């Protein structure tokens, strides 16, 4: 009976956890990269990193360099601009565009965020440092949409314009490491515009508030971030050196792949390096991998590049297949080298379709989870009723006919009592909320 009581208590504990997970969700937070410095503040050069941390070496992207270093591919970096005065970026950054000031030159960065992302993608080798980008042969096209790395309504509108402009000016890969919780018609149209013109968008999966609990059900997920949640965008989460998802990386079915994102070395404006972390840097690394593929296999479409990155991703200890990891960690070497024995391109599986109507999808998922929770409630209630009845019955059988103070049956004990009839569970235990109204996409 103690086992039954403990099982009931454990069931109630799981029930409470499920209820809390269903009723609450992670709140959106400001995107990473904001800072209090202004463009008028002189840039403080960072220290030069002589070596890379082990987390940054996890990708092994140097193994792909005998095949390609990304030559001939233009990668647009949308964000805070890029400082091309950094020694490892000189000669590799185009003029770009500044949508903040209206200047036809995006090579100004007040907070170093865009410079850091560009360096992770395409920084050249330099004496005295072990830092280098994934695709040092690629060209960066900077598009500046914010001075401080903050994404509000105005910046979201500029993001849509920036994507369209980058597509029209030769970008084959577009990196969006600053994302927004706002789902707008203008941004959707810009993503569709890029997809229709064979340009791959690689976006950070977003962020989670410090201390946020994971969703309480496999059917639930963190709130979506855009444009990473749109179909046709490669959404990138972040893992630490042990392969475990960073606490700041969202749990969501929209996450396609992950990349290292914990405490990575990247360039700062002017010169030197600093430590960066989060899904922003993970998306930058994945953008570099996309540039390698597009350089090595120029005949592949953007959709095929995305499929290749997903199909060649490596399983990791953290939990490949779950919402925080999905298909695994990108592998540059496998992505540019794996072929069939006959030398042809490996046949890759189709990506699962992603629903564009995210609001309806989330509502349906929450209804499924509520139905599941109601079933758990009914089962736990039934277990409690059963345990109580059995406990009373056993206690009566053990005490009937026994002298007090003895542990054996007395002379008047006539064997076990007849098992009592158990009450049937009522339908109220299995009540579930009505499903959400179907919406037409």
Automatic annotation (TrEMBL):
Its main location: membrane. Residues 70-315 form the Peptidase S8/S53 domain. It comes from the Bacteria. It is a single-pass membrane protein. The keyword Hydrolase applies. PROSITE patterns: SUBTILASE. One of its GO terms (cellular component) is plasma membrane. GO terms for molecular function: serine-type endopeptidase activity. The keyword Glycosyltransferase does not apply. The chain crosses the membrane at residues 374-394. It is found in: Cell membrane. GO terms for biological process: proteolysis. Pfam families: Peptidase_S8 (PF00082). Residues 1-25 form the signal peptide. NCBIfam families: T7SS_mycosin. This is Type VII secretion-associated serine protease mycosin.
């Amino acid at each position: 009976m103690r086992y039954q009581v403990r099982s009931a208590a454990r069931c109630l504990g799981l029930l409470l956890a499920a209820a809390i997970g269903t009723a609450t969700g992670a709140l959106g937070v400001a995107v990473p990269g904001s800072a209090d410095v202004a463009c008028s503040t002189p840039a403080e050069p960072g220290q030069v990193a002589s070596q890379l941390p082990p987390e940054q070496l996890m990708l092994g992207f140097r193994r792909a360099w005998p095949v390609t270093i990304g030559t001939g591919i233009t990668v647009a970096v949308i964000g805070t601009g890029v400082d091309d005065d950094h020694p490892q970026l000189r000669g590799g950054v185009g003029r770009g565009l500044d949508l903040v000031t209206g200047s036809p030159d995006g090579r100004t960065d007040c907070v170093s965020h865009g410079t850091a992302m560009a360096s992770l993608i395409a920084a050249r080798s330099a004496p005295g440092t072990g830092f280098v980008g994934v695709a040092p042969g690629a060209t960066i096209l900077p598009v500046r949409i914010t001075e401080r790395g903050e994404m509000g309504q105005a910046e979201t509108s500029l993001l849509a314009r920036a994507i369209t402009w980058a597509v029209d000016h030769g970008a084959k890969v577009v990196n969006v490491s600053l994302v927004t919780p706002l789902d707008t018609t203008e941004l959707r149209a810009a993503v569709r515009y890029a997809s229709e013109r064979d340009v791959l968008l690689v976006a950070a999966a977003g962020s989670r508030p410090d201390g946020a609990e994971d969703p309480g059900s496999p059917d639930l997920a963190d709130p979506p971030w855009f444009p990473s949640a749109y179909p046709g965008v490669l959404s990138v989460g972040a893992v630490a050196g042990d392969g475990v998802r960073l606490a700041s990386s969202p749990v969501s079915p929209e996450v396609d792949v992950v990349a290292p994102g914990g405490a990575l070395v990247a360039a700062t404006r002017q010169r030197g390096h600093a430590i960066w972390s989060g899904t922003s840097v993970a998306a930058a690394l994945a953008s570099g991998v996309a540039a390698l593929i597009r350089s090595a296999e120029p005949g592949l479409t953007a959709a095929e590049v995305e499929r290749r990155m997903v199909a060649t991703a490596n399983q990791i200890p953290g939990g490949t297949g779950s919402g925080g990891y999905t298909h695994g960690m990108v592998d540059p070497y496998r992505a540019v080298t794996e072929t069939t024995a006959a030398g042809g391109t490996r046949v890759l599986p189709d990506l699962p379709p992603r629903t564009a109507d995210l609001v309806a999808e989330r509502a349906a998922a929450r209804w499924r989870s509520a139905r599941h929770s109601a079933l758990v409630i009914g089962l736990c209630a039934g277990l409690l009723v059963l345990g109580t009845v059995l406990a009373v019955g056993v206690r009566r059988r053990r005490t009937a006919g026994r002298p007090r103070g003895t542990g054996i049956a007395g002379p008047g004990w006539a064997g076990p009592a007849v098992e009592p009839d158990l009450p049937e569970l009522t339908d109220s235990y299995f009540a579930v909320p009505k499903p959400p109204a179907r919406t037409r996409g």
